[in-house]
Predict the 3D structure of the following.
Amino acid sequence: MEFFRRIITKNETRQAGIAMMLLLLIMYMFVHQEVARIQPSLDLLSFLPLHAMSRMELSLLDLKFILLLCGLGLLRICWPQKHFAFFVALSSALVIGLASPKTVFVIAAITLLYLFPLHRLMRAAESRGWSRANSRFWLWLGIGGLVAILFLFKLQRDIIVPRLGGPSMGYDLLALVGFSYFIFRAISFLHIQAILKIDEPTPWTILSYTLFPPTITSGPIQKYQDFREQMTNPAPLSASLVFAAVYRITRGYFRKAVVAFILNEAVTKLLSYRTLTILTSALVVVLLYLYFYFDFAGYSDIAIGFGLLMGIRVPENFRKPFLATTVSEFWRNWHITLVDWFRDNFFIPLGGMQSPRPRAAVLAFFTMVLAGLWHGLTLSFIAWGIWHGLLLFLEAISGVKPIPPGRRHGIGYWSRVLRTNASVAVGGILFLPDPASILKVLNGFYNW
């Protein structure tokens, strides 16, 4: 009773509760139109019965999933902080399991039966005085296993391989949500726990990290050491925190559900024309470029907001990328956590930061090729990786540097900004869903 009396008499917590109710109302306003389109007879309270949860999608655009995350944000108030990791692991598994049982089963199985035992093996090896080479063997063996799993997943998802199960297995793999992001988080964990000698006696923090609902589907990819530190001291649910979360979430939904939707409709309309001209092709490139930003930056805002509600400060994913003066600067400000992952787990371990300029340029090229392959084992994604790899290679070889902050003005600065954005935007057409659309846009540039 003392706990509830303290909550009722605490003005800040009352304000937080009011803000949460406001958040639920705003979420309903944004998402209800899409829900009603799918199921017109759905009214405001029809999602409350538990049997309806079977129709829930593992998406921050699904109203039922949103409500469950808000519920977890409130429920953590009455959970003992010393058991917060167990609470996040258990609640994350339950919420994700309601939306996608296959996803939670596969991710939890790999975490509990692969990552955690390998982590304990490496800690035991070090405590018994095994050589550093032995520990590195287990580390690279573990990472190699995760890479092999990801490769098989991509291979079966993008290229149906009969001996790997054929179409039926392909459909099962498509049901796994956020699997590529999970593998990258798992590799990041193995790598950093070996460097920092992190010792996890229980699997709960690791499971919370791999199943954290706000970021499971599309990131941002949080570093394990940052996530672990916040798990021991989560941000308290205060009015200021809830208001900050409401702002990020509403901004994210506006970007994704309004701006990105309009841009997508415009691109779809232009691509429906029988032929394109140089002007319409250029317009497709610009609109598609803006669509990618508002769609993904909006999703990142939503993930950051819901992360705050659960007590975890998720890292930023975008930082004014359109003002970049080089492609390398662009990639330091666009999808920041993915680029940081490739830098920390591929570029730096291979000596990219201390290599001569030609070697660093080659590593930058292959980094972007791998980024393309991570998106999918298709020719368009591979071509996208090669395009960006060539841009970074040429910049590294020529020694081009971003314009310093004090000189960011005038025609010279804005011409560099325009050239950088044009180089990136042109590569964006390779993300169009089919080769015919890509060729139509390219042919339009030759049609005056």
